[in-house]
Give the backbone structure.
Amino acid sequence: MPEKKTFVLRINPEVYNSLEKWAADEFRSVNGQLEWIIENALKDAKRHPSAREKKTIR
């Protein structure tokens, strides 16, 4: 498994509370929920690394 990059994120407490509730509703940690959101956003924008690899193969 590739090593994960760590970074600091400053976020509005109200947004964090909403994110925490959403994560709990889906049985994820806040970190896991953020990873899921980012992965989906990258895929939707066709900017996910796996999408770029497929594009170069064609």
